[in-house]
Amino acid sequence: MRRISAPASFTAKGVPLAVRHEGRIWAVVAEPVHWFDRCDWWKTSRRAPVGSGDLVSVEHWRLQVRLGASTSARRTFHLRRDPLSEQWLLAGVTDG
Fold first, then answer.
1. What is the pLDDT of residue 42?
2. What are the CA-CA distances from residue 32 to residues 17, 18, 44, 71 (Å)?
3. Element holding 21 (H helix, E strand)
4. 3-class DSSP state of 41
5. Which among 92, 56, 52 is positioned nearest to 76, based on CA atoms?
6. Which residue in 45, 46, 4, 42 sits closest to 26, CA to CA?
7. Closest by alpha carbon to 38, among 54, 15, 62?
8. By C-alpha distance, which of 60, 58, 55 is closest to 41?
9. What are phi and psi of 46, to 5 degrees?
10. 3-state class of 42 per DSSP?
């Protein structure tokens, strides 16, 4: 996984409109898919005081993107953000 900049812009409801990656702006061109899953908290040595927040929910977005407003080929970005992190990870990129 590679670290990326946070999604560049959002709708009023928090849906990504574009992602900055490798110095380029990738525009979201299809309805994004959003979900959460749980990390393997029992495999980590992470400890936190009571009231620290959600330490197990991993946020995911699957985005169909293109470079800017161009007619370039679509790519699919899978973004992931670990609990309590502000940093997004690029978990995968596929063409088409």
1. 64
2. 9, 11, 30, 19
3. strand 16-21
4. helix
5. 92
6. 4
7. 54
8. 55
9. -65, 130
10. helix
Q: Which residues sit opposite 18 in a β-bridge?
A: 9, 27
Residues 57-77, mean pLDDT to the nearest whole number:
87
Q: What is the pLDDT of residues 23-55, one digit of tens each?
A: 888 999 999 999 999 877 666 656 666 776 777
Cβ neighbours around 84 below 10 Å, total? 12
Sign of CA dihedral 41, 46, 50, 51: negative
Hunting for tokens 């293109």 — which residue is that? 66
CA dist 25 to 3, 10, 22, 32, 61, Å? Answer: 15, 13, 8, 16, 17
Question: Distance between the two ends of the chain, CA-based, in angstroms?
Answer: 20
Structure tokens at 91: 């978990």
In degrees rounded to 5, what are phi and psi of residue 40?
-80, 70
